[in-house]
Amino acid sequence: MKPIFILIRGNSGSGKTVLANKLQQYWGYENCLLLHQDVNRRNILHTNDHFGSPAISLIEHLVNWGIYHYKVIILEGILRKDIYGEMLENLVDNCGNHAFVYYLDVPFRLTVEHNQNKELPFSISDLKKWWRVNDYLSRNDYCLKSGDTNSFYTKIITDINNPN
Fold first, then answer.
1. Out of 10, 13, 49, 161, which could bridge 111 as a Cys pair, Cβ 3.0 to 4.6 Å?
2. What CATH class is the domain 4-161?
3. Is the pTM of this model over 0.85?
4. Burial status of residue 37 (CB atoms within 10 A of its CB: 0-12, 13-18, 19 or more)
5. Cβ contacts of residue 68 below 8 Å, gap of 6+?
6. Residue 114: burial class (beta carbons within 10 Å; 0-12, 13-18, 19+)
């Protein structure tokens, strides 16, 4: 069976990490590789988001490696379209109808609330500086606008278990 690739994008504090962690628990660690953009970019490479960032190729290689070793691969992060878009579109194209792309399009006020629950919250000025409006990868993204982590989780599980 061809692996499932789940891409979860959105602004800082939109709930991507919590959602992705919950999805990995659903499939189990032995079946699901979860890649966090921030871990790869900040903790491993110690780099910022910029054109030509080494994070782009590292993430691409890790997803492609995961396709050969796991049933489900989840990639989550802000993953700005202007920087990561071409690489992400190639990954989605390569996975075909086994790729599920989600964009958490939640209001800024909610990202501020979520951010306050982090161990090391960012400043509101940083959140504003990083905020991207409608940074969809394509018009085929599933936009999750209203609801909470549990409703987004249920939507994704339903989509994958009952593909069109």
1. 13
2. alpha beta
3. yes
4. buried
5. none
6. buried
